[in-house]
């Protein structure tokens, strides 16, 4: 197939794209290339303190939340980890790299891939890694559920990836980012990449107990975050309307897409708390013709067949801006 410009529904970023203030300030940010950045990534401390009232002692700045996914299994010396399937590939890859055994937990389509029954799966593990919202299913756990599990099983580390929290259906009620949610065995990963549409700048944080955060910092080299990335943070803090607009757009489009597609006999569509949908293509010819036709129509969908725990013609698509979603709806109908 010859190269052509496509609308990329395979990447789950903010539908609004780069914040305007950051775009217009980019020429100024280039000046940061001529200086060493703060060795500890201090600009992120201000970001999380301002938005989430989190203290520096409970924060580890990250070069994208993916860094935390790979740091934690090694730091904690994890031995056997419960990982929900289907799930983000790097959870398992990070644990295997650390020498940990994986206890796979198959989420059930009959329950729309919810986390029902999680507590029954905890026997014999020293950690749980899952997303809330979870990729690729879009399902979440309420903070009260997670905090109760933390109290009931103090010997288990609960590692919760909230990379999509500000792209979710209810960021305030689903978020674990706040001093009231701190627990000795709870780790929360957060990314600025997705909610601000900044995958190239690599910004995120790990929230955890102060003693362990201090120990982790002592193991890491300085200057892990670039100057341009840290210089962008004040512009993000100054753009007080951007995340509100993201929430409003996603709320409208999430509802519209589900309403238009849920009754489509060719699709099995999973309700979502996130900024993406998981769907199965039901016709017997399988997924390849759909993906090929989508590319020919200028649309890129995420092939879901390489997610462990998904059997059949599953694919994922992001919720984008209204005009882009119109193109997808026209194609899928």
UniProtKB/TrEMBL annotation:
Required co-factors: pyridoxal 5'-phosphate
Domain of life of the source: Bacteria
Stretches assigned to the Aminotransferase class I/classII large domain: 5-331
Keyword Transferase appears in the UniProt entry: yes
Matching Pfam families: Aminotran_1_2
Molecular function as annotated in GO: pyridoxal phosphate binding; transaminase activity
Transferase keyword on record: yes
CDD domains, alphabetized: AAT_like (cd00609)
EC number: 2.6.1.-
InterPro entries: Aminotransferase_I/II_large, NHTrfase_class1_PyrdxlP-BS, PyrdxlP-dep_Trfase, PyrdxlP-dep_Trfase_major, PyrdxlP-dep_Trfase_small
Keywords tagged on the record: Aminotransferase, Pyridoxal phosphate, Transferase
Enzyme class: transferase
Homology family: Belongs to the class-I pyridoxal-phosphate-dependent aminotransferase family.
Protein name stated in the entry: Aminotransferase
């Amino acid at each position: 197939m010859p190269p052509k410009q496509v609308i990329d529904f395979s990447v789950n970023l903010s539908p609004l794209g780069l914040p305007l203030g950051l775009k217009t300030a980019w020429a100024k940010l280039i000046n940061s290339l001529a200086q060493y950045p703060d060795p500890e990534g201090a600009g992120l401390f201000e970001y999380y303190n301002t938005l989430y009232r989190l203290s520096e002692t409970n924060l580890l700045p990250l070069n994208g939340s993916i860094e935390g996914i790979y740091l934690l299994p090694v730091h904690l010396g994890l031995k056997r980890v419960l990982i929900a399937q289907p799930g983000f590939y790097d959870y398992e890859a990070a644990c295997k790299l650390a020498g940990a055994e994986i206890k796979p937990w198959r989420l059930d389509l009959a329950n729309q891939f919810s986390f029902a029954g999680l507590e029954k799966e905890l026997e014999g593990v020293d950690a749980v890694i899952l997303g809330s919202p979870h990729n690729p299913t879009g399902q979440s756990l309420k903070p009260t559920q997670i905090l109760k599990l933390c109290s009931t099983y103090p010997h288990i580390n609960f590692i919760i990836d909230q990379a999509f929290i500000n792209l979710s259906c209810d960021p305030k009620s689903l978020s674990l980012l706040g001093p009231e949610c701190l627990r000795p065995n709870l780790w929360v990963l957060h990314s600025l990449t997705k909610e601000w549409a900044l995958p190239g700048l690599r910004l995120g944080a790990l929230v955890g107990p102060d003693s362990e955060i201090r120990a982790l910092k002592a193991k890491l080299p300085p200057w892990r975050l670039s100057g341009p990335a840290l210089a962008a943070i004040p512009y993000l803090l100054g753009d007080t309307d951007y995340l509100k607009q993201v929430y409003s757009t996603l709320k409208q489009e999430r509802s519209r897409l589900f309403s238009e597609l849920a009754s489509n006999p060719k699709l099995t569509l999973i309700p979502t708390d996130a900024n993406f949908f998981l769907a199965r293509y039901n016709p017997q010819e399988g997924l390849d013709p759909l993906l090929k036709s989508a590319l020919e129509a200028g649309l890129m969908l995420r092939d879901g067949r390489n997610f462990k725990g998904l059997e059949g013609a599953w694919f994922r698509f992001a919720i984008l801006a209204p005009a882009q979603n119109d193109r997808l709806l026209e194609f899928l109908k």
